[in-house]
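Dear all,

This email documents one entry for the complex benchmark we are building for the journal club exercise. For each entry we list the sequence lines for every component of the assembly. Then comes the predicted three-dimensional structure of the complex as a token string, followed by one or two observations. Please use this as the template for your own entries, and keep the labels exactly as they appear.
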Amino acid sequence: MKRQKDAESVKKYAMWDNCRYAFRHLRQKEGAGALAVCGGDVSLGVLLPFLEAALAGAVAAILVSGRQAGEILLLAAGYVALLQTVRFLQGHLRRQRVKTLFLLRIDMGVDFFRKTVWMDGQSLESAQGRKKWQDAMRNLYWGNNLGMEAYTKAWCDLLLQLMGLMLYGVIVGRISLILLVVLILQTLLVSYFHTKAGKHAYGLENEIEKKWGTFRYLRQETVVPGNGKDIRMYRMDKWFLGLFRRLIDGACALIDRQQTGHMAAGMAENLLTFARSAIVYGWLIREMAMGNMTLPSFLLYVGIVAGFGAWMNGLFEAWRQIMENEKILDDYRDFMDFGMVEEGKPGPERPGSIHEIRFEHVCFRYGGSDEDTIRDLNLTIRPGERLALVGLNGAGKTTLIKLLCGLYRPTSGAVYLDGKNIQSLDQRAVFREFAVVFQDVFAFSFPLADNVSCVDCGREDPHRLRESLEKAGLWERVQTLPRQTRTSMNKDLDEAGVTLSGGEMQKLMLARALYKDAPTVILDEPTAALDPIAESEMYEKYDELVQGRTAVFISHRLSSTRFCDRILFLEKGRVAEEGTHEELMQKGGSYAELFALQARYYRESREAAAN
Amino acid sequence: MRELKSIHKMGFRLLKMIHREDSTIIPLHLLELCLSLAQIYAGLFLTAGLIDALLTGAYAEAAWQAGYLLGANLLLGLAKYLLRRRFQSLGTRLWLTFYVWLREKVFAMDYESMEKPEVAEKILFSERTSDMYGGLDNLLNHYCNILQSILNLVLSVSLVIHLCLTRPAPGLGLVGGLAAPGPSLALFAALLFGMCACSWRAFSKYAAKQLEIFDSHTGVEERLSYMLNNVYGNEKAGKIIRIYGMEDMILENTAQSNQKSRDYFAKMCDVGNAANDANNLVSSVFAVGAYLLAALKVVAGAVTVGAFTRYAGALNQFGSACFSLISGHGELRKVCTTMEDFLAFLDMENPHASGSIPVEKRDDGEYELAFENVSFHYPGSEEPVLKDVSFKLRIRGKLAVVGRNGAGKTTFIKLLCRLYEPTQGRITLNGTDIRKYDEEEYRRIFGVVFQDFKLFAFPVWENLAAGYERQDDRIWRALEQADAAELVRNMDKGLDTWLYKGVEDGVEISGGEAQKLALARALYKDAPVVILDEPTAALDPKAEAFVYERFGQMTEGRTSIYISHRMSSCRFCDEIIVFEDGKIVEQGDHETLLNAGGSYARMWEAQARYYA
């Protein structure tokens, strides 16, 4: 039910509108010359097959004309030379067209990237947004035969085939309307069979695509070096290789079924062509026998009749291509119109100073979920306060901080920054007030310095870079790297890149937040991968790290609450308990219970030692 | 010449591999190729007959000729459709099988080799080139094209020579003289030679240019594809880009690569176009010459108008066969060159010989593992990660491994699992060097949850059983032990529920839940040694306490190793080793080490003081 709603939420665009969209972009990105190339390709594309069809007839006509030998040779050579010139030009223009349309696809990537980065984060992160992005991507990055490139090409082809068909139709219709009817009937029947086979094949496409998806996924995962450990320890090679083979067998069996349909249609076409040709040849030979026709026109008509079917088939194929890519273009445009890009809102009043942040009756629900993750939450964070956020997995801690820094919009209620509703402020300006260490540690495969400073190489402040790395406890390690702060992270883009360990990555994330020097710092599980000494060092330095800032600390390590002014215990999207550590311990509620649970193993030892 | 030889050596090796994979592919393609040629030449001969009959006014004869022509086309056409039915699936199979071969090799490799960047690069490169230029299916197609071109050349040249040898009617002066066998052969030879020479020159010139552009262009597409998939397409990256204001930096970065990529492809297209233009020009000139030659023969009365069409057709065939031979060979060379890395990868040998002794099956779990003066440094690095480690694992004991980040704990485990081999010293199982055991059998005794364990987007049961048999009752028992039974029971389809959204519309699970499933996977294997590397990092205090409480039960009757930064976990282990700088610096139980006041005590105190 939910899926269907998702599918319906993709906007549909009229076919003409999509066509205009494609050619408008072609003109914008590749210039008016691109349109001229397409037009030239169409006209030569009609002319060339005609000249070729007429070749045999024309040369025969010259040969039997009874002229002088030299004249005959000159004329024949002249005709062939003309044909070759057109062929040469047509080939040249066709390749120009291929190039232009390919470059169009590359150039449009920039728009797509810009949109991805500038649209609001919540829309992009949502399940719906992810799906839209994936679908839209196909328009540009699924090869030459799908999406924008194929779509624009198909429209050019459609025009070409239509004109060719009209030309040939007129030529045949002028000598015999019945013959024209026979031709049209035959091509219609042929295309009926092919359409039927195509439909049959299309019906299996989903199943094949599913196998493909699995295959792609498995392909990717099986060569990730890190996965090699589990693969070897759990004998997954047997599982995966078997699965690969099964997927290939399955997909090939389905393809065979598709092809059986195509084969039947092809054989039917062959039989129909035979019948058509029998009629045409019979008629033409009769006309010749009756003296109504010369050999050259006989040959011309044979060529035209053979070409007629090709135009018709080409027309159907172009139409099919358009229809196939229509959906992809819809998806792309839908994504490009999706989400919000806001402009003209004011920034926070006092940027760079510590703020008061207030939640008023905030509810939040993820799209597609039937339960609120945050429920009617009220909370005021005082400027400069140190807040600890604790709770079990799934209590809503991470969602809360995304609401806090304005990444997510509340489903109802509002978040206020210094008394101003965050929604009324410029989002990017609000983001500048926050430095967040997210739970999922993740570095871009750029140089380390870029990952910390978040600006291009060379534009960072080296002093600040060093200071933040030192504070995060990573400076010494950085000194041992092959190119220090210039060392690339991971090996995706640079063979000499380095993969940091989990603990080091967490320090890197911390360094990034420190470099930003924002008035509000949010740390989500920043010590999960740190060893006990590093963890305790961080606790000891915490005061210094967040000096003069508002700070929110999320951790499963309840020891971390000790150096916070206030603890919020979150349960099912609500603040269940709040207060200082002592207050909450005295209260003896959920927090105290949890603390005791964690402390037990440390305490028993103390008691044991005391005994 | 030598290059030619090496290309076809590779090509034939791949053809043999293809034949071994499916023995019908090659014969089917050969048969199809013969039918195509038959169709072309039957058409040429029968059309010529038809025209001659029409010219002489023998209309009944013409009707018969037309009948033959259409009949031949019908039969050959039907036969081709029958043959071609399976081409699509066979081609797909070939193309995909390439990836499977690659993975067979990847799985058979040492883990150590697999982690090497140059190996990863080889794999990536092989894959990408197969994606971009087509793989085995293309190789086969190119070979078929080449063979067909050669056969076509032989046939058309014999026809053309036949044409040249025809004698003109006497008394035609200059035309007659030129149309005589000698001069017409010379004319044809000149045409042929001119065409070959020009084509070859154009081909080599542009091939060199293309290669030059190709070589000067590296890494841009990799960069773009990284940006697309791992930055723009990464759901984790979006919030970081926004919060840290990286929009402009990222966009600028991409725009630059995009521009480079655009320039590259534009240049490649231009050179390709120029090459094609040059080739087309040559073949156009040849076509004009060829028609002149045939027309000359007609004018000189050596052949009929019908025969003219046949010979003109043969000359046409000759031109296109030459062209497709040259371009087909160029394409084949491209494919073979890209396959070179793949073949080199298949030929790579494992640096370590694999043992063959089976591991003794013991019900009592008496597997004694020991490190004897083991040192280790990662390949390509001089820095030792483990230094002279000697240690005996107590059978059915519970061992805790602690130490600071980077002290060598995880490496210790990887060596134990034989993912790496010691650079010095040895590891023994029941007194025998582990290198002497069969790898798979040896690994069977370990159930490991690595820090960066991986679950795949497949059904729960497949993830748990992995390479072993599915036994539902045992899976459920493992799930119970790992505290994940509740979780799976609450899923829509229980064990058959798909995980993640990667393949099917499966369930998303949190890090903590994934950890429980990974634990269940380790327990399902029913291995005598269980190793847990940071199993509670993502768990909340409640779940963590549960693991602690149940740890004894989970590992009952087995040897267990527990690595954690949470010192509390040492409490339920009966032996602790402390790593520092690649060495074991302390060893003993909790009380002893605490009283010793060394590294262990310091780490313990660092955490415990907050819980006082």
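Observations: Chain B has a mean pLDDT of 86. The radius of gyration of chain B is 36 Å.
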